[in-house]
Structures are given as C-alpha cells and as structure tokens.
C-alpha cells in the first residue's frame, strides 16, 4: 500500500504557508500600507 503525497516544492510550500498564516486579505492590506510608507 502506497501513501499518497503531494510534490513538495518551494512554490507549493509557500502557497500553503501563506494561505494558513498570512491570508490574501492581510497581504493586500499590508502591501498597500507598505507602499504608502515614507521616510522621516
């Protein structure tokens, strides 16, 4: 009996990690906030 598994690639890991710990809505919000940063 063989165990079913997914290919473990960097892209697969990154997608799953971000989905679990840093949802897309948060990434969008913080991305916009980051783009508005000014020095000073």
Automatic annotation (TrEMBL):
Classification via InterPro entries: Retrotrans_gag_dom
Retrotransposon gag domain location: 7-40
Name of the molecule in the record: Gag polyprotein
